Amino acid sequence: MGGFVRRYPMPLVFLGLCAAMWLVEGLLLPPDARDALVAWASTNLANLAVNPVGTMVASAFVTSSGSPGAQGVLLVVAALGLFPTTRRFGNARAVLLVGLSHVLGTLVSQGIALVRIELGQLSESVRTVPDVGPSYVLCAALVAAVLYGPGRYRRLLPLAGWCALAPVLFDGLPALEVAAVGHLVAMLTGALVGAVLLARERRRPEKDAQPCPGLGAGLAVGLGLDVPGSCAGGSVGVPGGVVGSVGPGGVVGPVGPVGDVVGVPGAGVEGFGLDGLDVTGSSLGTGVPDGERAGAPGVVPPGDVPTG
């Protein structure tokens, strides 16, 4: 249980706050106080003009009406979207996805309402219409879970939740009602942000897979070894930094200590020795002149290698 909580703090906190707020609204607050709370938290034009941040945050956890059963259904459907989205992108990026969707859904829908008021298509009373609830977050999470969630068959659950709520979510869209427009914008934002996050994830492994220049690359070129390079200062991709290679005549040279192995500036590697390995004329990237020995005492030129 503890591992589950540590893995999914974002959806658990969000759903817990929603459930707590709904219980307070339904069981503790009298109707007048509940109406005052909804009026304060609504992301309508009147509140956005004076308290945009506070209303943006509070509106996601407050509801204007609905039976406890309907609110419970919303919690379940929200969970179907939030948990797969968090599993796919992680908690921080899931917050980014639903947060941007909530903000843009609010700003675009209220912006269209403002334009229509200025054009005389809507009355001034629209400025104070209640606009609260987690539906923008729910819409973004469902779409992201359907498009990018882990496992094809697991995506069927959020898809079923989206299909069940779609008639309600898009009700009033032809008339450009605030809620319907906000739902559509939140869905599009969730799809777009999810695509950007996914593209960044796919580029990261390609960047990490690029070879690192350095000692490992020099060994691979100089000795003909298939030794992957490493960026860990002085390491050659071999545990312990030890390489036992085969010298001329098939003789395996025992490992001996070497003070410094050059090839990368300042990359001294302790515990790296090629006793009995002829490196004459090899391209180690070490700057060792042809005909000279490199390595620990015991490195011998051709012809002096013991044959057993």
Description:
The protein has 308 residues and is mainly α. The chain folds into two domains: 2-208, Rhomboid-like fold (Up-down Bundle); 212-308, no CATH class. The chain is 54% helix and 0% strand. The chain is built from eleven helices and no strands. Helix 6 (68-89) packs across helix 8 and helix 8 packs across helix 10. It is globular and about 55 Å long. It starts with a helix and ends in an 85-residue tail after the last helix.
Question: How does the SSE layout of this entry go?
Answer:
Elements: H1 2-7, H2 9-28, H3 31-41, H4 45-48, H5 52-59, H6 68-89, H7 91-118, H8 135-148, H9 156-169, H10 178-208, H11 215-223
Low-pLDDT runs: 212-302
Instruction: Please indicate the percent range of residues in DSSP E strands (runs of 2 or more).
Output: under 5%
Report the biggest beta sheet as strand number plus sense, adding barrel if it closes.
none
Please tally the helical runs, counting DSSP H or I stretches of 4 or more residues. Answer: 11
Q: What is the CATH domain class of the largest domain?
A: Mainly Alpha
Shape field: globular
Q: How many strands appear in the DSSP assignment?
A: 0
Helix content: 40-55%
Key words describing this protein structure:
54% helix; 308 residues; Rhomboid-like fold; single chain; mainly alpha; globular; 2 domains; 11 helices
Give a quick rundown of the structure.
The chain is an all-alpha fold and 308 residues long.
